[in-house]
Amino acid sequence: MSILLDLREKKTSLNSKQNGGRSLLWAAVAVCGIVSQFVMPDFLLAQGSEAMRQYGDFPLVGSRVAIWVAAQVHLLFAAFVLGVPMFAVVAEAVGIFGGDSKYDKLAKEFTRLLLVAYSATAIWGAILSFLLVTLYPGLWLYLVEIFQVSMWVYVSLFFFESFTLYLYYYGWDLWSKGRAKLVHWTLGILLNVWGTAVMFIANSWLTYMMSPPADVTPDTAPGMVQFWSAFANATWMPINIHRIIANVVFGGAIVGAYAAYRFLVAKTDEERAHYDWMGYIGNLIAIGALIILPFAGYYLGREIYEFNQQMGITMMGGFMSWLWIIQAFLIGVLFLAGNYYLWVGMGRIPGAERFTPYTKWMLVVLVLGVMVWATPNTMIADREEIAAMGGTHHPFLGVLGVMSAKNTAVNLMILTTFLSFLLYRRANSRPTVTWARTATIVQVALFVISTFVVLFYGVWGYFVPAITRIGFSVYQVLAVLATIIGVITIDVFMLRGAESRGDIRWGQMPARSQYALFILAVTFTWLMGLMGFARSGIRQHWHVWEVMRDTSEQAATPALGYAAIVISGCVLIFFALVSFIFWLGGLAEKGTKVLSDTAKVEARPGVSQ
Amino acid sequence: MRKHFSGPLGKSVVILGVAYLLLEFGIAYIPPLFGVDSGPIPDSVLLQYMVTVAIGILLWVSFNETLWEEFKAPLHAAMVEPRQRRTRVALIVLVPVLVGLMTFNSVRPSIAAPPSLRSIHPAPPGQIDFQGRSMELAGVENPLRSVGSPEEHYLEGRRVYYQNCLPCHGDGLAGRGHYAQGFNPGPASFQDVGTIAQLTESYVFWRVAKGGPGLPNEGAPWNSAMPAWEDFLTEDEIWSVILFMYEQAGHEPRTWEEEGEEH
Amino acid sequence: MLAEHLKIIGVVVGTIGIFTLLANAIPQVQSEVPLDVSFGADVSASELTASGELLFGSAGGCTACHGLGTRAPNLLTGNGGDGPIGVRCNNRVPGESCKEYLYLAMVDPNVYMVEGYSPIMPDMRRSLSNDQIWALVAYLEAQGGEVTVTGADINQGREDSASSASTATVDNGVAAPASSATDPVDILNGNACLGCHILNGTGAPIGPSFDGIGSRLTADYIRESILDPGAGASEGFEASLGLMPAIYGNQLTAQQLENVVMFLANRR
Question: Number of folded domains in chain A?
Answer without folding.
Answer: 1
